[in-house]
Amino acid sequence: MLRIMDVASALRRERETAEAQLDAATAKARLRDRLLATAAAAGESVTPAEVDAAIAHYFAEQHRYADPPNGLKNFLAHCWVQRIGCLFLLIVISAFTLVVLWVANAFAGSPTKPAVAPPRVAAPAPKPTPVVPPPVVTPPVVQSPVEAPKPAPPVEPPKPPAEDLATVWAKFQAAAAAAREMAIDDVARASVDQVVKLGRLHHEAQNLERLKAARSDLDEVATRLAEEYTVTIVDRPGEKSGFERLYNGRVSGYYLVVEALDRNGNALRRSIVNVETKSRDTVTKWGEEVEQDVFERIVADKQKDGVVDENVVARKVRGSMEEQFVLDNGRGRPIPKGRRVTRW
């Protein structure tokens, strides 16, 4: 019942408002009172007769239409309103002009001239046929067959001299000494010593092939030690700086898209193990997992001005085997190494 009464009251108020707005006499009286009150408050001496005359002039001119002044805009507006008729008139004028030009061209041609037969030419007198002597036949000369030159045998490049056990072991020891000198921490030195230990066992067992394989492993360790780069968050227009990984409708991880840049800013190709596929992929960009609060802090940093100011995630210095993470975890410590993905 209360709702019905509210609806009835609202309808009554709307009806009273509509009747007051549609009643011109009431509107004029209300406007007259407001104008007199405004003039009295402003200190102006205005008589009621002047106010009535102004109100009558306002209502008389309120809905009167006056044509806009002539000009280019007015002309273009009329053309736009009558565009269909103007287009039809233009087509009719163009068709009429083409017909007139075609008729004028047809009647403006030059008169035809009578055909004149060409004069007859007398046939030339037949000439006597000359007597041709029979041709002299020369017997063919038989030539002896010429053998085609035989292709020269391909020249094979000289094979490198075979390395013996002593030579390979000497090179292995030299490379091991250089790698130990390059190592700057315990992890790096342990990686070198592990390969050196395997090489020493293969040398004592007189196994040349396995010693060569150990030499290759030592070269890979030395190459890793010599690398120097900075792992930074990708911050280029049109490329993602991070993403959320979903699994069964829920977030399974927060990842920052990073790349390894050398001193010249060139992206290096890295061998990354994809945690989802367990495959090792060689890529220039990969996803580095971080905690949710770190991810949200980087997102807010980029949304602030479109640039990630806190973009350094880790650094790889010469002589170490692993990157040293420097991105703050929000508690004054660097973030730990998380899972990595190569596809998103």
Structural overview:
The structure is a single chain. With 344 residues, the protein is α+β, with helices and mostly antiparallel strands. The protein contains nine helices and nine strands. Strands 1, 2, 3, 6, 7, 8 and 9 form a seven-stranded antiparallel beta sheet that branches. α2 packs across α3, α6 packs antiparallel against α7 and α6 runs parallel beside α8. The model has no long low-confidence stretch (mean pLDDT 85).
Draw up the topology in text.
Elements: H1 2-22, H2 24-42, H3 48-61, H4 72-81, H5 83-107, H6 165-182, H7 186-204, H8 208-226, E1 229-233, E2 242-247, E3 250-261, E4 270-273, E5 280-283, E6 285-290, H9 292-305, E7 312-316, E8 324-325, E9 340-341
Antiparallel strand pairs: 1-3, 1-7, 2-3, 3-6, 4-5, 6-9, 7-8
Helix pairs in contact: 2-3, 6-7, 6-8, 7-8
Instruction: Please give the alpha-carbon distance between the first and last residues.
Output: 61 Å
In percent, how much strand structure appears in the residues? 5-15%
Which range best describes the helical content: under 10%, 10-25%, 25-40%, 40-55%, 55-70% or over 70%?
A: 40-55%
Helical run tally: 9
Oligomeric state as shown: single chain
Based on Cα principal axes, name the global outline.
flat
Written as H for each helix and E for each strand, in order along the chain, the element string is: HHHHHHHHEEEEEEHEEE
Structural class given helices, strands, pairing? Answer: alpha+beta
Extended strand count: 9
**Which sheet architecture does the biggest sheet show?**
7 strands, antiparallel
Report Rg: 51 Å
**pLDDT < 50 runs, ≥5 residues:** none
* Overall pLDDT confidence: 85
